[in-house]
Predict the 3D structure of the following.
Amino acid sequence: MSALDELYRQVILDHYRSPRHRGSLKGPHIHAEGLNPSCGDEFSIDLIINDGVIADVATQGQGCSISQASGSMMTEAIIGHTPDEARALTDTFKRMMGIEEGESPLDPEKPGSVLGDLEALQGVKKFPVRIKCADLPWTTLADALDRSDA
Amino acid sequence: MSALDELYRQVILDHYRSPRHRGSLKGPHIHAEGLNPSCGDEFSIDLIINDGVIADVATQGQGCSISQASGSMMTEAIIGHTPDEARALTDTFKRMMGIEEGESPLDPEKPGSVLGDLEALQGVKKFPVRIKCADLPWTTLADALDRSDA
Amino acid sequence: MTDLRHLRSDFPILGREMNGRPLAYLDSAATTQKPIQVLDAVDDFYRTKNANVHRGAYALSSEATDAFEGARAKVASFINAGGPNEIVFSRGATTSLNHIAYGWGLNRLSEGDRVVLTIMEHHANVVPWQLVARHTGIELVYLTLDDHYEVDISGLSDLLDERVKVVAFSGMSNVTGTLGPVRALVDAARSVGALVVVDGAQLVPHAPTDVQDLDADFLVFSGHKMLGPTGIGAMWGKPERLEEMEPAEGGGEMIADVGLYESRWAPVPHKFEAGTPPIAQAVGLGAAVDYLEAVGMERVRDHEHEITGYALKRLADVPDLTVYGPGDPERRGGAVSFSLADIHAHDIATVLDEHGIAVRAGHHCAKPLLRHLHVPATARASFYLYNTLDEVDRLVDGLLDARRVFGLNA
Amino acid sequence: MTDLRHLRSDFPILGREMNGRPLAYLDSAATTQKPIQVLDAVDDFYRTKNANVHRGAYALSSEATDAFEGARAKVASFINAGGPNEIVFSRGATTSLNHIAYGWGLNRLSEGDRVVLTIMEHHANVVPWQLVARHTGIELVYLTLDDHYEVDISGLSDLLDERVKVVAFSGMSNVTGTLGPVRALVDAARSVGALVVVDGAQLVPHAPTDVQDLDADFLVFSGHKMLGPTGIGAMWGKPERLEEMEPAEGGGEMIADVGLYESRWAPVPHKFEAGTPPIAQAVGLGAAVDYLEAVGMERVRDHEHEITGYALKRLADVPDLTVYGPGDPERRGGAVSFSLADIHAHDIATVLDEHGIAVRAGHHCAKPLLRHLHVPATARASFYLYNTLDEVDRLVDGLLDARRVFGLNA
Ligand SMILES: Cc1ncc(COP(=O)(O)O)c(C=O)c1O
Ligand SMILES: Cc1ncc(COP(=O)(O)O)c(C=O)c1O
């Protein structure tokens, strides 16, 4: 597979074209917005945390397939988890992408076992300019969780 | 004679150290000020024109030996002359210095015959950075004469 | 075809490979590449003449000053200015526009005065006026674009009254390639005595420019967009306007005298050049101007018309591709913005990059325009004298590959 | 002696002849010469990486961005800043001081507020405040120099009250070599909550600088005075101050969003860097910093102390020569201003130029100081790492020849 085809895997295009948990939430929720000023990509997130668990999530935004797909996959990965688990996931993701230091957490023998669909974003690592695209939703999530003090 | 000794001839040093017609004039006079902003040299001139003739002149200023000597010699050269003669002299001087286009007006056979002491300033031509020093008093004079409408 | 292919060897970077393919640099609206003639001029300046300018009483400093002022004279004659003193060097078009907004605007405009802009302005011709508005209460008024991507001047006469003090517009849009309607806007401004500021960042590099014909009050442009170094640009101003304008920056070299509480300014243009100027960069810009003049600005323009026309024709064959900009290559510049199906502009740029093709993606520092066009980002190819028709073909092939990668039929 | 003679071959221009003699360049306070390492870094950037920064979605632009941001990181670590984001690139010290005066002063100061300066300030730290005073009504207050050419801080406590909002001063005078009394002025400013701005144009190039120790709010300096290219400089700011400061220039790259009438700014430091920055020049400054670090700033300082000490000693033997500046070489910088008998400074410079020696003559952009010293112009020799004791000997010989030319006994 060429680097391009590895970058734009089917699962990524699918999340880009049909983003999950799209929209906004009513009621007591946490809201955060992220912007990548250099390219103009935008991402915002609403979270509802009930009984210490992320009960619902909705996102809005515009931008490239990488940022939007990363955000869509993120929503699926965090829903039903505690804020601390979401934080841990954020770290795992950032380590996989080389954004944070540390060994890649993935198991090369069993693709998909650690981060599920998100592992498809590994192809972005060959495109350093695009890493911040994949990162935007996660930085916005981290910001939201910080605000919640949860 | 070295270029330096040609530049700083005795007559120039003499005018520098004992400038002629130094001071200011009272009564109906024309006043103009000149400044060379890059080096800070200053020169100002007072003229009294009676019956179409420059009857008196006085200058003030500070600056290098070239600008001050040029101004001192200028006063001697213009006093008693009409404004038009002073303008013509200015042109002759500027042509000698290569500031204005045209053949040098000097007679190499008879040094001093055209511009008197002022011909000593020819040595400045070898020092292009200093030409504007020699020119400052003359530009100020031209300015004064323009104001007088004489 | 005005074949300028032989010039390519003057540009070392064009020999580079990018992702395994020869580099096709289609981003000259952002910044241009530099010929060795410019690089050598800069290098030679540092190696043989470097000293600070204007202040020196020694020969080296006077050589440096001559080189710097010589560059000013070259730039002046390049745009047919009345003389070198009508040229003020700056860091670039942005700084020059800020100088005008602050130096002229902050000192001479007040509450209720209006500045007319167009919706296609680069942020460099929007934000400085917004900053000055904060301090003065001036109002910004925008002309919009019509369906053909031309500045809509139909409402212009209604808009004109004595409140309009400045009309400031781009000579050519860096997004749509739209040419500013210079004649109409200058006449309109004159009819109410308003100042005319032309942002020539995309104009001066690409076509012969004659400020006598233009008849504006100010024209600004950047060296790095016309083969020159980064860090240098210029403002041309009408002598009367330069006289009446206050300096926006204070410091050394721009003064006649400095007192403790007040100062007097040096003559134009020096009063606008506070501090040590970008000396070597001005020398480089002078060399860039020499280079462009040797090629001939008519040829530069003709070459770009040809390549832009070819690009518009070939892009029309790519399914689901929309070009944002006028269709007639003779009536537009060589910045070609487009979108392709549902593929985001950044993804287009990434695919093209893999093909060795450099295009820009994003809002191109023109957010008001992109909002007006209802598109968050476009991809943009832009051309200069070193580009070839082959590179356009490669662009089209790259776009077809983007369709493939995104699962669209090619 | 910290012998740095071997470095001279890195500086091509130092091999040049001037008026038939080897060039003795004693004007580094005006601008410094550039080593090949810096020239090569700039040239290489243009030949292999040139693209606009931040905006690109292609690999070349990301290489350019990495080079530019890498330079920011180098500059940050050179002055021990908390991180790269504390560094704002500009055209030079003058522009940075204007940014502070406009960005902070114009927006946060008002009538009756006071800015404390010293009489030894360069025009770059005087005129911007005067310009801002026109729009705000702030008052400028000056500390003077005592008989030993030291800043007189005896009246400081009387002067301090809640009206004092800014204390801005030079780390080292470019005329007298006087070091700004950093500790006393920072403490004084802190006691009334005033902002501290240090003009480091002559400080940062010549001695190790640690902004953590300095404890100011802002520090500015110019690349061309520290072996770097012209057209680049930097401002360091405390993070809190950078956050609260408004941008002085508007344009592309400094925004988060641009509306028709209002905009939001990008994060620090980008909000202060409108438009295309001096990209290649930043890369060159990064290389200059690498060079200085390889030599070691302690050695640079020690070398200058030594050469300045030797110069002060030798100049004392020239009859009728007056040095304007502190006598102890360890307590001053390497700018040595002097007058000689009744010979005007320009005439001194001309005579020395004939000897191949480049010194500056004039008011050195410090008219308030020269008025205070009651001297219309001085000649100034200033030293850097590439100067030698031989050059000092040649300076002294030249001065003796000036006496001869002016008919004074040698
Ligand atoms: C139309 C237009 N104006 C102004 C600018 C700003 O130029 P610079 O970034 O060189 O200051 C640009 C460059 O992007 C431009 O395209
Ligand atoms: C003390 C001081 N401050 C500021 C400046 C201004 O620096 P620049 O001309 O590089 O902006 C200088 C340079 O002459 C200086 O010596």
In short: Chain D touches chain A through 14 residues (CB under 8 Å).
